[in-house]
Design brief:
Chain A: It comes from Thermosyntropha lipolytica DSM 11003. Chain A: It is an enzyme of class 6 (ligase). Chain A: Keywords: ATP-binding, Cell shape, Cell wall biogenesis/degradation, Ligase, Metal-binding, Nucleotide-binding, Peptidoglycan synthesis, Zinc. The complex is a heterodimer of chains A (459) and B (244). Chain A folds into two domains: 254 residues, Mur-like, catalytic domain (UDP-N-acetylmuramoyl-L-alanine:D-glutamate ligase, 3-Layer(aba) Sandwich); 144 residues, Protein-Tyrosine Phosphatase, Chain A. In chain A, 37% of the residues lie in helices and 21% in strands. Chain A has 13 helices and 17 strands. A nine-stranded mixed β-sheet of chain A has the order 2-3-1-4-5-6-9-10-11. A six-stranded mixed β-sheet of chain A has the order 12-13-17-14-15-16, with helices on both faces. In chain A, a hairpin with a 2-residue loop joins strand 12 and strand 13. In chain A, helix 1 packs antiparallel against helix 2 and helix 2 packs across helix 5. The longest helix of chain A has 30 residues. Chain B is of the alpha/beta class. Chain B has a single domain, classed as Rossmann fold, CATH 3.40.50.880. Helix content of chain B is 27%, strand content 31%. Chain B is built from six helices and twelve strands. In chain B, helix 1 packs across helix 5. The chains are: A alpha/beta (459), B alpha/beta (244). At the A-B interface, helix 11 of A face helix 1, strand 7 and helix 6 of B. The site of zinc ion has 8 residues of chain A, from loops.
Chain lengths: 459, 244
């Protein structure tokens, strides 16, 4: 008892000091508390009066957890929710320390715990969730050397024999099988056919192999990347029938879709986020939240500006990212290193008051990382297109691969035309909204054009 | 391959507003011209043998840091001055530039002594002089514009009117916001308030230093670099400031 209180107290003190120092207080308080009381997370997680929900997967777990948290808050529940990025045990412990009182008795209704795939077995040793939601398992962003299969096996083993519910993406062959041989209850979400499907995958196939028999998976349709309507020609493994089905999907100027009897609209962008919405709604329905509350909460929920919104223009994904200081730029370049696809990098550098008049910060960032991101072209734009072009050149980008297009629209179009598999649209604050508008417009007109040609060929 | 040695004085203390970009620029350009370039970081308390160096670079820093640097550099000042007199290139930005003069008097009356290489002084004022700046300089032998960004509370005044400023201010504040002078130039030394960083967008100034380095070593600068991107960036700022 005393140990618990000391752990909480010290954790809170560390949290408070870090806050005063203006530092991130997402991991260290939890680490300190766990040193004092190894079972602190176990103990504090018992204060959740309703349910604990664990959210994991390669992509989309932050957006999905934020949306689910938004829905539960809309309903008026008190929740514990760890912060994006702080998704190991220490970060999750920090979230509980921060929310609890000094005696460690304060009750919360729900805990939404976002965590890395590899962390799931460890987490299950300490907390007892009712529900584990899995967004997707993308192989190409993880290790290519069987790491993912290993992780999936570990998750499966850790679930075995526990009474919990799995909320699974029915469209991902890497995820949909997860309940088999575990005895867990499985709930599936997935899309029926949409206007945005393709019969051929654009991505270079690295081969998606059947988890049961090793044969290559075939697809009837692709929704997004490896997510789609799939089957194994050898053993017959195929999408399970979803309990929560997304249909009537529109990605024009935001997202609208129907999920069972719900009508959802959101100002998020891209198919990718439609999956996050579908996942969050499925979980909320399973927790018994009313349709109106869910619809309202999602409608209100705005994407944090520049948080990696994805647009698809003529089949080429374009990811919009806000960059505003050396740390942020370094983080972005790091993220780009993990995406192995070839890419065109667009960078809009403005020097308006809200951006900071002084653009010299680009020299304090390690732009040299660009050499490890598999880029095709670097397109420099914005009021200070010259400055970012010079920075790129001195970071080691060959002059031949630097294109200066000061006007944002010309620059973005150049990035989409270039041969990279994907485009990253980096922008400082005052160019961000213009960039987003341009991307949105291009996405709308591109998909209108595609439909036009489709119906023509049907004639 | 010849190796050029550039000392970066007190990189942990003196590095504001991307000033390290000046070194990235010199190093890359030297490489492109066919020379190796070794940047030597020098920390507080280290003894420096200036005679083995081809150039010295000092970035900007806050008042507190300037004081630490002064005390450390003071004991080696004579040796440094000998090299400056013999034509060693030196680039000092902002706080380091102020350090080359007699003193800096802060707004609350605190005196910080400088190395007194030149007879000028600096006085702190409440209002900081912040913004893009463009100068005209003749350090390279012909009239060239120089663009950058200044951000300083100090006003620098020359006592000795034979001192030569680095350039004449076309737009911006410069040394003191009044007499249109900016920085100081002496032989192959330049002291200036310009961040930005200075050299990448002003390749003529970068090459001024490189020429001086090579000449001192009896080496020749061969070939020309393609500076279209650098010149574009230069012209972009120039257009913004002069509206031409
Ligand atoms: Zn199979």
């Amino acid at each position: 008892m005393l140990r618990k209180i000391i752990a909480i107290m010290l954790g809170k003190i560390v949290w408070f000091i870090l806050k005063i120092l203006g530092r991130q207080a997402t991991v260290l308080p939890g680490r300190v508390a766990r040193l004092i009381d190894r079972d602190i997370l176990k103990k504090l997680s018992r204060n959740i009066s309703e349910e604990i929900i664990v959210i994991t997967g390669t992509n989309g777990k932050t957006t999905t957890s934020n949306m689910l948290a938004g829905i539960l808050k809309e309903k008026g529940y008190r929740i514990v929710h760890n912060q994006a990025g702080a998704n190991m045990l220490t970060g999750i412990t920090t979230a509980f320390i921060k929310e609890t009182d000094i005696k460690g008795r304060k009750k919360h209704h729900y805990a939404i715990l976002e965590t890395d795939e590899a962390n799931v077995p460890l987490l299950l040793n300490e907390v007892k969730p009712r529900m584990i939601l899995i967004t997707n398992f993308f192989r190409d962003q993880l290790d290519r050397y069987g790491e993912l299969d290993h992780t999936v096996r570990l998750i499966k083993e850790s679930i075995k024999g526990k009474s919990l519910e799995l909320v699974l993406n029915a469209d991902d062959p890497m995820v949909a099988h997860l309940a088999s041989d575990t005895g867990a209850t499985a709930w599936y979400y997935g899309f029926s056919d949409t206007d945005y499907d393709s019969l051929e995958s654009r991505e270079s196939r690295e081969g998606r192999y059947c988890i049961f028999c090793g044969h290559e998976i075939s697809y009837r349709r692709y929704h997004y990347a490896q997510l789609g309507s799939f089957f194994c020609p050898k053993c017959g493994y195929h999408n399970p029938e979803p309990h929560f089905t997304g249909y009537d999907l529109s990605l024009q100027g935001g997202i609208s879709l129907r999920i069972n009897d719900l009508k959802i609209t959101s100002s998020y962008q891209g198919f990718y986020n439609a999956y996050n919405i579908l996942a969050a709604v499925a979980a909320a329905k399973l927790l018994g939240i009313e349709n109106e509350v869910i619809e309202q909460a999602i409608k209100k929920y705005l994407p944090p500006s520049g948080r990696m919104e994805t647009f698809i223009i003529n089949g080429k994904p374009a990811v919009l990212v806000l960059v505003k200081n050396p740390t942020g730029l370094n983080q972005t370049l790091h993220t780009l290193q993990y995406d192995k696809r070839s890419k065109d990098v667009f960078f809009a550098l403005n020097d308006n008051a809200a951006d900071g008049r002084d653009v010299s910060w680009i020299w304090d960032a390690d732009v040299e990382m660009i050499n490890d991101i598999n880029y095709k072209m670097v397109i420099c734009s914005g009021k200070r297109s010259g400055d970012i072009a010079v920075r790129m050149k001195y970071a080691g980008v060959d002059s031949e691969r630097i294109i200066i297009r000061t006007l944002l629209k010309e620059g973005i179009e150049e990035a989409l035309r270039s041969e990279g598999e994907t485009a990253y649209i980096l922008s400082t604050y005052t160019a961000l909204f213009a960039c987003r508008d341009i991307l949105q417009e291009l996405q709308t007109s591109a998909s209108a054009g595609e439909k036009g040609s489709k119906s023509l060929s049907a004639v | 391959m010849e190796t050029i040695k550039i000392a970066h004085l007190y990189p942990d203390l003196l590095n504001l507003y991307g000033d390290r970009g000046n070194l990235i620029c010199l190093q890359k350009r030297l490489n492109w011209y066919g020379f190796a370039c070794h940047i030597i970081p020098v920390e507080l308390g280290e003894d420096i043998d200036f005679s083995t160096l081809d150039m010295v670079f000092m970035g900007g820093g806050s008042d507190r840091e300037q004081n630490l640097v002064y005390r450390d550099l003071f004991r080696q000042a004579d040796a440094l001055w000998v090299e400056i007199e013999e034509g060693m290139p030196l680039l000092a930005i902002c706080g380091s530039y102020q350090l080359l003069g007699r003193y800096y008097e802060s707004i609350d009356g605190k005196m910080m002594y400088g190395l007194s290489f030149f007879d000028f002084y600096t006085e702190g004022e409440e209002k900081r002089l912040i913004g893009n700046i463009i100068l005209e300089t003749e350090v390279t032998g012909e009239k060239k514009t120089v663009v950058g960004f200044e951000n300083h509370g100090g006003r620098t005044y020359f006592n000795d009117d034979t001192l030569k400023p680095f350039g004449k201010v076309l737009r911006g504040y410069g040394n003191n916001g009044q007499d249109k002078t900016e920085g100081i130039s002496y032989k192959n030394l330049i002291g200036t308030y310009l961040h930005g960083p200075l050299l990448p967008k002003n390749p003529a100034i970068a090459d001024f230093f490189i020429q001086a380095i090579l000449k001192r070593k009896g080496l020749e600068l061969k070939g020309e670099l393609d500076d279209r991107i650098e010149n574009f960036a230069h012209e972009q700022v120039k257009r913004m400031l002069l509206g031409t």
